[in-house]
Every structure is written in C-alpha cells, then in structure tokens.
Design brief:
The complex is a heterotrimer of chains A (about 260), B (about 210) and C (about 475).
Chain A lengths: L20 H10 L10 H13 L1 H4 L3 H25 L6 E5 L2 E4 H25 L4 H10 L5 H11 L2 H17 L7 H29 L18 H23 L9
Antiparallel strand pairs in A: 1-2
Chain B lengths: L23 H35 L13 H10 L4 H17 L4 H20 L7 H21 L10 H32 L7 H9 L1
Helix pairs in contact in B: 1-2, 1-3, 2-3, 2-4, 2-5, 2-6, 3-4, 4-5, 5-6, 6-7
Chain C lengths: L8 E10 L7 E8 L4 E6 L5 H9 L8 E9 L11 E4 L3 H4 L5 H11 L7 H12 L14 H13 L5 E5 L7 H18 L2 E5 L3 H4 L5 E5 L5 E5 L1 H14 L23 E11 L5 E11 L3 E5 L6 H8 L10 E3 L16 H7 E4 L12 H11 L4 H14 L15 H13 L5 E5 L7 H16 L3 E5 L3 H7 L2 E4 L5
Parallel strand pairs in C: 3-7, 3-8, 5-6, 6-7, 12-16, 12-17, 14-15, 15-16
Antiparallel strand pairs in C: 1-2, 1-4, 8-9, 10-11, 10-13
Helix pairs in contact in C: 3-4, 3-5, 4-5, 5-6, 11-12, 11-13, 13-14
The chains are: A mainly alpha (about 260), B mainly alpha (about 210), C alpha/beta (about 475).
Chain lengths: ~260, ~210, ~475
Amino acid sequence: MSTGVEIEEKVRGAWLDGVNPVTKLVLALLLSVPLFASIDVVSGLVAIGLQLLCLPLTGLRWGTVLKRLLPLVIFAPVAGLSMLLYAEPAGRIYWSFGFATISEDSVSLAIAVSLRVLALGLPTILLFGRTDPTELADALAQVAKLPSRFVLGVLAGTRMLGLFLDDWRTMGLARRARGVGDRGALRRFFSMAFVLLVFAVRRGTKLAMAMEARGFGSGIQRTWSRPSQLHARDGVALLGGAVIMALALAAAVALGTFRFVWS
Amino acid sequence: MSTSTRTPNATSTGTGANPWRWRVVDIVVAAVLGVAVGLLFWGWNVVGGAWFGAADAVTPGLGGVAVGIWLIGGVIGGLVIRKPGAALVVEVVAAIVSMLIGNVWGVSTVLSGLVQGLGAELIFALFLYRRFGLGVAALAGVGAGVAAWVFELFYGGSPNILKSLEFNTIYLVCVAVSGAILAGVVGWLLVRALAKTGALSRFAAGRELAREV
Amino acid sequence: MTDATPARVQAAGWGWRYAGRKRPAVSDVSFAIEPGERVLLLGASGAGKSTMLAGLAGVLGDADEGERTGSLLIDGAAPESRRGQAGLVMQDPDAGIVLSKVGDDVAFGCENLGIPASDIPARVAEALEAVGLEVPLRRPTEALSGGQKQRLVLAGVLAMRPGLLLLDEPTANLDPEGVAEVRASVERVVDATGATLIVVEHRTPVWVGLMTRVIVLAADGGLLADGSPAQVFAEHGPALADAGVWVPDQPLELPVLPAAPDAAESVLSATGLAIARTSRTVVRSGLDVRVPRGNATVITGPNGVGKSTLALTLAGLIPEQDGEVVAASPLAGRGGRRPFRWTSRELLTRIGTVFQEPEHQFLTQTLHDELSVGPKALGWDAARTASVVDALLERLHLSDLALANPFTLSGGQKRRLSVATVLAASPEVIVLDEPTFGQDRRGWIELVALLQEEIASGTSVVAVTHDAGVIRHLGGHRIVLEQAS
C-alpha cells in the first residue's frame, strides 16, 4: 500500500529501478567525468556503445531514448564547430582566416568533441529517465545524509514546475490580448520572466508557511515513511559503470588515440 | 540591516540568534526561484544557444556575450536570500531543472552550474554577506563568469585550453562583461522590481525597500 | 479518530506588526475559545484575519519579521511550540500540497512530528477516510480537482491529529461542487473529532449552519463583535455587508437583466466548432455557439468541460481545431472575420479578454502605466491617453492608487484593474474568465454593476462562470456545456 523502493506498478519492472538513486547519481558522475580525461573518438564511441548495450537494464524503450538523444545529436556539431575553428593549429593546415584556423588536428578534435557531447548526455538519459523525484529526495536525505530540511524543501519547491509552464503559456496569450503580442519578443520574454519570478516567490512563501504549519523544520527528529536503503545491486551497478569506463579508456589507449586533455 | 536580534521567547525554529541560518522559507523560496530560473534558462537556450554558435563562428570567443544570462541564478539567489550558500543553491537547482527539461549538456550542466554558483558565492562571501548593492551584484556576475571560464578551460564539451590564446582571452573578457551586465545588473534590477511588488516581504531585500518608499 | 484533544485558545491583547510596516496588522485582540467551539472569524479586507490564523498556527516568524504584543496561548502554551497541534488550511490548494503523490503528502505531517513509521499508514488511511477522499495513494496530486486538492490538504492536516483546525478561506477558489465537498468534509471531521474550529470566510451562508460563534475583527484594532451567529448578524448585519461579508438575509440591490431576445444579431458565432488547449487533445467538438450583440453571454458547465477553452477560442487567442469563429462584418480586420487571424492590435479594439488570474496580464510597475499600455499600443497621443486613463481610474475607484504597483493591490482591486485595462481600448466584446472568483461582497457588486453598465452601453459581454448570482443578474444568452459522454 505505501510506497517503497520496490515499484510494483511500473509498466515493466526494470533492473535499474532497484538501484538506489544516490547510487545512480554517483554512476552518472562515474560515467561522465573520466571521459573528460581524453578527447578522442574511440573512448567516446566505446562508452556510448557499452552504455547502449545496457539499455534493457534501464527499462526504457528505444524510442524514448532516441527521442531524447535527438536534441543532443543536433547540437553536437555546433559544439564541434568552435573546436574546429579555434583549436591550436597542429598537423596540416586546411584553411585559415583571421583568428580561425582549420587544421588536421582541429578536425579530429571537433569530431571527438561532438561525439563526447553524446557520451556525456547519455548517462543522464539512461539513468534518470524513470526516477521519481520523491524517491531521489528520500535517498539523498537517508542514504547520503544530506540535511532533510534542505532536501525536502527543494523537493517541495520543484513541484511548482508544472504550474510555471501553465503560467508561461497563459501569459503569452494575455499579452496577445493586450495588444503587445505583435512585436518585441525579447521585451516580452523579460516581462514574462519577471512575473514568473513574482509568482515563484509568492508560491514559495505560501508553501513554506504550509510546510511549517505541518511541523516541518521544527527541530523534531523526523521519521521516514518511505525508507531508502542500499543493497547489493548498488555495488553491482557501480562496478558495471567502472568497467564501462575502464574499457572505454583502455580501448583508446590500445588503439593509440588516447589524448590527454592537458597535453 | 539584519543584525542578530534576541527573541523574547525562543521559538522552536531556533532562528533568533543566527542571521546566517536558513529558515524554511529561505530554503523553499530558493528552490522555487531555482526552478523558475531554470525554466527561463531552458527558454533562453533557444535564443542563446543559436547566438553562441553563430557568434563563435564570426569572431572567436564572442559567444561569451550570451553566457551572462546563465549566470543570473546565483546573483538572484544571493540578493534575495542573503545567506551563505544561497547563490550556489539557486544556480545549481536552476542548472538541474534546465538539464531535466531537456538541454544538451547533460551532467556537465550541473557541474558548470555548481562552479558558476560558487563564483558568485565567493563574491558575496567576500563582502561578508552584508553588502548587496548594484556594485556587488555586478561583481558577483563577473565572479560567476570567471568561474565559468576557468571551468570551461578544462572541462565541458570542448575544453578551451586546447584553443588559441586569442580565443581564450576574448572569451574571458566577453564572459566577464556579460556576467557583469546580463547577470549582475539585470539580476539586481529584477530583485529590486520584485521587492516593489511586495512579494519579498519576508526577506530583508523586500523590507529595506519598503522603508525607502 | 482518537487522541485529538480539542484545544482551548486564549488571546489577551494580542497584536502583530509586520517588520517594515508602520501600522500593526492586528492589535488588541482578546477572546477565549473553549475546546470544541466552532468559530467564524470575520472582518473587512485588511482587518488581519489571515494574520490571526497564521499567528495561531505559529508560523508568523521570529523577531526579525515582526513585533508581537500581548499573548496568544493554545492550551496554555505559545503556538510556535505547538506545531502540529494546530492544522492550517489555506486558500490556494496548490501552495498547500507538498508532495506529488496523495499518500506521501498526507504522511508528510506525521513524518515531521516524528510519528513512528509503522503507525503512519494507518493514520493516512484514517485521515483520507475522514475527509471522504477515495483515491488511490499513488494518484499524482496534480491530477486532482480543486475540491479534491483542498480535501487532500485537510487530510494532511488531520493525520497530525490536531486539536485546533484553522481554515483560511478554504473554498475561495473552488466551484460550487468543490465548495460543497469541502464543507461536507469539514463537518464530518469536526463531528467525529470534536476539534476546535476557526474558519475565515466571507461566504458565510455556506458555513453559518456549522458555527457556534462569530468573532468580527475591527479594521483599526480590537473586536467589533463576539457572540452567537444570530446575535452578531442581527446587530451588525448591514455593517458587515458593507465591509464585504456575504451576510445571510442581506439583499443585493442590483437589477436583474432579462434574457437576450432571439432576434438579436450575433457579434461572434461559430458552427461545428472544435476546441482544444493544445493541438493534441480536442476538448469539445461539434459546438454551435453565438454571442448576441449588446447582451451578456454566460458560459456554464461542470469543471474541466472546456469553458475557459471555449472563451479563449472565441476571443481569438487559441486557434480553432475545426470550424471557424466568425465575427460580424463591422469588426473585420485586415485578415478577415476570423479573430485568430487578427493582429494583437486589431484584437485590442475588438475583443478584450480578462483572465482568471489578473496578474497574468500585468505589464508595468504602476497602475497609470498599466492603463496606458493599450492606448500606447494603438498610437494615441499623450493627451488622449491621459484623459482616458484618468476617467477609468475615477470610474473604478482606483484614483488614489494611480502610482501604486499593480502587484501590491488586493484581490478585488486587481480584478478591477484588469477589467479597466480592457476598457481602455473600448472593445466591442469583453470576454471574462471567472470574474467573480475569490471576490468578497463589495468587489462582487462593483464588478457585476460594471458589467451591467457596459451591456447597457452596447458592449457584448461573454463570461465564464459558476456563480449563480452572476448568471441571474446578467441575464442574456446562456451557453451550457455538458459533460461529453
């Protein structure tokens, strides 16, 4: 009846659902930060490939993942563009104009960078596609031992997101109705942003009052109706993540493409 | 203005003595502000993302001009809540929200949000969390910008340390100026306008304006 | 429900002044409420009712935020030390719900009070049953209706087993069905637990049957009245009605407009209309509607049936999914007779829209500027703008607030301001979405009188409303949307 770490009602119970959200956070970092050490095509590709192999464990559908990857795929070349034009020139120079120089080196760096955008974005999509914010907050407070006032206060505040989206849409309609909808998109953005902030502060203040009236933050030692714990599966997940990273970097070293970022 | 006062009857919230302790309303409003700012970041991504790419292609490092808006979370947090960690919390929550709604950088967003928030936080700390005028706000924007620059030198999607010196210098200047204006000045103006609506009545930022008027 | 001992409340010369304000919000209040009493707290707008309840809940803040005078005791102790013994339900249900699932939210208070985790599920079930909210524990709180949300907040409060229930305008933002639900729940709860009840409401006919006592706060300090309902209403009825309270048996002195004649020409019409908020979910289809000129058109129907969507579609703000809204030919813009095709400026002089939440429409920092937005967009010169603005300020009794910030106004004033901004451009049609939501008696009368004036001068008014009084007094044409089968 009450919620627990076991999720009976999700469409298909996934292996990853049994992993504690704090572990997932550590995993996300684990699957991203080591990639920063080297900019090359191989490590990025291997990391992406291995992670995609783990898709069945996450319980997400291919369609969902691909849909979320799409903006990344579109944006990756833009990130590469800057590297293409302005990296320190090395190897054969193809083209040069003013400060911009396209060289052999910058081309390979640009490709590696674009791939890395994907490799960095993928863990978040895979790990947090089905995470419940309340579960995450429970884990942060109980397992990671972060102060519960902060964690729960932030959780409560984030519930407002849906309301803000509605507000934004309505404000857009209201501005059309008031005769200012034709021009000045930038000005409209700032004016709507301002009202959104007013709503934010007001709602936050009222919510804080309601929470305090229910005994929140009053110094009494609180109990948890949804216990969050670590299990063996968390260790397995972390190990798996470490293995993926090790393989990716090892592949790069083995194929000689490893390139330390500070070299 | 918020000097420590002695409460006649010690309340169970225990906030009477320490002006740096976060009240529940501080926490919740910081979170909600973070969510709202995160939403604005996501909206601005559409504008700013394109500008970034385009400006970068035209002149190296000039993409830094749009960066300022992404630094505004820390400035607003620090100016409204006025407690240690406020700038950091708001900027990080904003980064998380904008990442979750769907932006392209993944975990890097949160890391850069952390660093940017720290940059602003350091400036507020330098002034001992007592000064919150226009100058401090602009400096906090610069602080966040410089922190972002340092972070992107080594991390991020394409570490700038691999790019030329000209690129990095121009980028630094652009980011600092953008931070000062788009985050610092705009942030200060926004908070002031917020205070005038009466919404900040539970915060020092709101009360000091009420006295002026 | 056991264990909730009804609380005794004692106030002696109690007052509170918010930091940064010159005058206290409440001053010199003294009363003694016995356990189990049911008190209706009344007073003019600004008399400090919400402050009083916040003080009783112990959430007013510390010395930084204001200054206390006198004493306020719940069962002999200060409210701040009795968190969890007083349960507070506020006006805005969205601001009172903390977590995203029903079961989690109800458990929140218990967790805060340190109730052992094994006891919590039982309390949650008990509380939900007491308010009559039969939804699964995993239901997302966002998916609940207004009335359900308020009952959820009430359940969350009840799970703490408080001896004192504090309700601050709990039904202000609800439709009649929601109001009835909440009222029934509260009665059930109070009968079962015998908790002391203090309610702030200006919609007294709904609550007066349940109350044993009425306390009226005076605007400038102290109490205006304190006694049984019959007594207080008999002595102070007219004064209270003037102050905005819906006192039972005080007649409204407003004309009742007649129904619209069938022959009246339509200023807006649509056949086979399908409406939707977003292009994915069509809310209604096959609608044949018309808006007769010079009359009121009232759109009614149950919650969620699409009334607001219809109004905004007629107003040219949301595109039609099927069929077309057609305006009478004198209204045609450069793009034709379909309002959605008109530019924002053309729309301004033809159809004005007043949204449910006035603040969604505010653009500037002072009332004067706010009213000038429309004229400026139309390119009027300064002199003409000034005269129009001044006239409107006069007409709507907002002249002395000309330089105030729109966000600092009271609910009624904000509503009048948003209507005024629409009137500045003198449109042919005015569309209003729930104009009397949350209005006290004074605001209500002013607004309905204003609309009747506009109708008399030939403007067509379209109003989405639940309010039976509005429907009655505006007459005109009715569009009734029924639940889609």
